[in-house]
């Protein structure tokens, strides 16, 4: 611990910035309610009106997948294994998001009214299987959140000396506030702001490291300093002992572990399904594919910059510790913040603190909505109160957010004090949860999978994975200890068993037991929550506002035109053709999506890294410079995709909000009401309710489209 920043800096960021951010997101949610007439019903809270466009979906995917571990662990991998660590981390964790696009299409087509993937499991297999996947889903959320908070509070403590308990508790409070106030839409908008800040800071570190720093300042200088390590402290298992090669035994093992764990944390995390169900139909698969391509350069470029930079400066006077990092410090994720301080002094520490705070809070807020939707719809509405009103469901969502946040803060504090590191939790993820990946995916994709295969595969695969993990640890290292279970061979064995055993179990249990011939139309039994009561209350509120404004506008606004149900009934027929077209486009897109996602996955996992691994090529100065330039260009693509493109897509909404704010500030609020009455199709609540009516009426179009394809 070197505490380059005062405790006040930690409290300023965690408490001060957290409060400002929460208030900003709540103000944004209020603006959307006032100027676009968003009404936070239970459905809106969980699905954001099912109308989020491609840019924001890709931004939300990038933000949700950019954990503290994304930045800290990828940098640690480069520090341990060299250039291979960043590439293997990025490629190994991109393919899951890319492939998830295929699952997102089918989930949205076959269960257009679902809010969680667990509702699909319940509709297909019933109570027992449902309970199994509730367990796996909540376990995924718990482990991911514990890893986020444990890693985050450790770094804040080591950067500022701030009490880790205070850091953990104060981090969760603002997330709870804006997630409870605005639901998924607020979280997605928060993701946008988080991502802008994170990418800006990563670019600052990139420009300083590779261009302006007096300590490094160019790829050539970094190449020279890191190349010397092959002689002075060679990396065992790397080609020539060099850190500038993709031929790395330890890097390859981490690559496999990352792939396995990534499948579990994407396919079993309901947060990714939340975003899929929230997407506009045409944006569902595009958002995930483009989001995966925008996410890849974030860990790749960040770790290349910070990891190799740390290796280059570690033996110089600029290194703040005056010694190498210990293995425990490396496992805790301290490579990145230590290098930031070495490079830029206290300014680097502040930027690191901001970046990691954004990474932790963005991913944590997504976990809050994921858990609240499971508790609300898969536990409370399914087993406690089947006829719960929308207002009651929102209340349950709020309570579940607060309870989950409190429990996970306590668990993360426990992990910190018993010295279970973020890196350990990251490698453990795949062993514990990945046994549920294949049967969960087949529940949505394969109508023949049997009840037994879906129900028994996750627990059997997980038990076998844990058993092999511990047995290999005992046989290879002589004792089952914390450090030994963290070794590459042990973790690799457990992860591989967890992901690969279901490949045998699913078909075996399907054909040994009676295969299903599931009728996908049964998933239409998943219905939206009745929103009538919530809409009537909102209508009454709007009527009161309009009556107040009528005196100012000479009675131009008629109160009855505020009623959402009347507006929707007038407009729904004109939108029927558009709705059918969107569903058919989505249905036809599945085959194309499979080819695109398969090709991207093959390129990322095999075509790009494997030949370089096999050739044992060590980067020349010129090649290394080109390598840095490529990732610099790629990170700029990410900035366009998740910062510029969402603004362009939302330009009409932003213009309308801007007009509304101007009218309010200039005392012309009656113009806002007149505009809203004159342009009902542009109101969010109207668009949401039109799609709700058409989804209930025309859901079977999905299956007609499927039959045409076959």
From TrEMBL:
Organism, as annotated: Lodderomyces beijingensis
Entries under NCBIfam families matching the protein: sss
PANTHER family assigned to the protein according to its UniProt record, in alphabetical order: PTHR46154, UREA ACTIVE TRANSPORTER
Membrane spanning residue stretches: 12-33, 54-74, 86-105, 125-149, 161-180, 192-210, 293-313, 350-372, 393-418, 424-446, 453-472, 492-513, 593-618, 624-648
Main location: membrane
Family, similarity comment: Belongs to the sodium:solute symporter (SSF) (TC 2.A.21) family.
Protein name, UniProt field: Urea active transporter
InterPro entries found in the cross-reference section: DUR, Na/Glc_symporter_sf, Na/solute_symporter
Location in or out of the cell: Membrane
